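Handout, section 4.2: multi-component inputs.
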Amino acid sequence: MVNKQTVSFTLNGADVDVVVEPRELLIHTLRERLQHTGPHIGCETSHCGACTVDLNGMSVKSCTVLTVQCQDAKVLTVEGFEQGGALHALQEGFTQEHGLQCGFCTPGMITRAYRLLQENPSPSEEEIRYWMAGNLCRCTGYQNIVKAVQYAANKMSLPRTGT
Amino acid sequence: MTATTESLERETKLQGLGSSRLRKEDARFIRGKGTYVDDIKLPGMLFGAMVRSPYAHARIKSIDKAKALAVPGVVAVLVADDLKPVKLHWMPTIGGDVQAVLADKKVCFQMQEVAMVIARDRYCAADGADAVEVDYEELPAIVDPHKAMAPDAPIIREDIAGKDEVGHGKRTHPNHIFTWEAGDKQGTDAAFANAAVTVREEILNPRVHPCPLETCGCVASFDKITGQLTVYMTSQAPHLVRTVVAMLSGIPESKIRIISGDIGGGFGNKVPIYPGYVIAIVASIVTGVPIKWIESRIDNISTTGFARDYHGIGELAADKDGRIKALRFVALADHGAFNSHVSATKLPAGLFSICTGSYDIPKAHCRVDAVFTNKAPGGVAYRCSLRVTEAVYLIERMIDVLAQKLGIDKAEIRARNFIKADKFPYTTSLGWTMDSGNYHAALDKVLKAVDYAGLRREQAEKRAKGELMGIGISTFTEIVGAGPTKVCDILGIGLFDSCDIRVNPTGSAIARLGTMSQGQGHATTYAQIIATELGLPSDEIQIEEGDTDKAPYGAGTWGSRSTPVGGAAAALAARKIRAKAQKIAAHLLEVGEGDLEWEVDRFKVRGNPGHAKTMKEIAMAAHTSNLPQGMEQGLDATEYYDPPNLTYPFGAYVCVVDIDRFTGETKVRRFYALDDCGTRINPMIIEGQIHGGLTEAFAVAFGQAIPFDENGNHLGNSFMDYFLPTAVETPHWETDHTVTPSPHHPIGAKGVAESPHVGGIPCFSNAVVDAFAHLGVTHMDMPHTAFRVWQQCKALGINTR
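Output:
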């Protein structure tokens, strides 16, 4: 039998331990062992971005990351965006601006856009298009995805109340 | 006045027809809580991985399973011989042919299904698939369809070599599938002989793939105790699948349940029944546990549901003023190794005969010859009705060719040939009766919006400086909403659709339909139709599709048929409910039915507006004893809708491109799309559909093609090679509309999602060719990649400084 390894990381803030073969891909661990089916598999070659998750503050295509690379890592998936019943500004933006149709790319899009806004809180349209180019959408033609990201950028730049 | 304002407010609150309300389905998708097929996990479930042929044409000498069976976790290896006892090694196709479920003695295209390995998880299954040893004897392959019917061509389909027909008339060669013709050949030939001017062009619609972001797959689960088969499946047409599975398996249809959950895009790719589904079903029957089979992306592009591959020749005959007198289109259709193209039984070339377009053309004749080649089988409609993109591409390109030959402006020649608005309903020379249209108004609006005259002036200035700028126009008409059951059936089943609405006592409702959303937003738009018909808020109307145990029978979602057929069924089912509600209201208000009038959400007594019953009040009453004499309780209705005609949405598009003659790079500077889809249900969703369709048109025009080498090796089956535009290269879209309702549709709606794909592709091509028009170029085949455009520049000697 193949040697299995225990890997411990935090997933959307919660500690998880998994026992996996060294060859197991992060996307499969997330979807099949940890019931996080938000990230999707669209190509298995790092092109489509449907499997995008945030790993230690970087966007990665989880279809080409080995789970054993995630020891002690912080992993964020689309399931981690809603906090205390409140939607994240990006989730709200995708709905308000009709930035999704079939929804298959949406978890990856939201996760990637989150990283964009962390690095660049007020991106131009050109910057949004460039940053989102690793995430393919077959339905929307991207125009409303750009608007959704702009919506979130605007909302997140508003002064927060009560802090 | 206050009454009007008040009723308008009530109407706004319903968020019904015409409201750009937000989508009801988004809530789960933005949280990552959709349920796509690969999210389904059943106890004891095993995984299937396919073993596929490395050759395009070869005999299978032997298959050795031993090493695969020795792989830890592998449970079974299925080959054709294992499916034989249950007679499922071959399956009938929609096209009247048969297709090998698993290759039976020979393979006829690269990546053909040869075996399926069933294992504990997907890793073990993949290991097992690698370990299956297949000994092949390679045979010469036919890749070019023009060579398929050569006298000495290798016979691809020995299994049907002796059959003189495969569903669509006489075959003349073992690699011939059918020849189909429409129109008046003699009259057309005579018109050509007498014409002042004729033009001819060879025009290719290359083999492409719809490539939804989610690949195809299923989870088949057979319960040995009850004999019940449940299949979770990425199907755009779950009810038709259930019928086919019943026919294939012998399991009573009542014991088969097909569930299409959330679907990650379809675009035609998810209409057919693929071998993987059948094998998974057999494997579940044999093993007694659920089997999951999910395509890889490479499998998806290589084997399931390609589109087009129509090698056309277009000819037009006209007078010296550019008025078209006759049209002659022929196409050689490459259907691959099995005739499993998607079509209605009586329409082997689909709706190709819509090729007269938006124009009043007195004589027309068209012909399609379909042949077998050693390529993946199929011929699905990629975001269009059956073969409509092919037809529209031909006419929209050819009218430009004619304009160039005569030196007539490309907008002007269209205006001269348009069917005039007062001629509708208009019957074309190829027999279609177009329901409504107003083409001049649409084109005029667009030309004004883009300052067409100004663009042509700019182009002339640029040409004088040696720069390449192209202006493309497309004034297309689609044909959607298949369709009237007299004309359209699949396996004998008419292409009607259905809606079943139940109104609850408290006035909310659930509606189930035979269609299947793949991102079009049916849960929102159907609810809006019903909201307006019933006066109930769309938020409180639940829509369900895709579960054949729950929804009434229908032919699914493809060919833009949801709004024209399913939407009509929804409106008419709601009207049945409203008719019953009116009887109840009359009873409750103690007046005659004729004394009542409908206003937004209630029946009012004429002349006594304070006296009224709302639909919510009526819904409660319908569940009490206080009903008219003899009336049953309940407030529900089912409608099976057989459309009297198809619908004919249309549009006028303008595209402006700038081409760098030194690199061949094309920049889409502007794209203006005016669509007329009749009554508009949700403008926000319509606009989203148009953005998406235009982007897919952009993909086809500028990059998509599935190339093969001479041995039938696939040269572009991953996202490394197959072009899907990203946010960076996708142009900005401008949208506009006119509204010309369909006179035969209950709410006047026509369907919209495919128009931008169908109309967009020729618009892009026309723009690229137009950039070279002053240099004598009349046609360039797609895709217009930088390399190919640069080759055109090179051929013209304009690529050097």
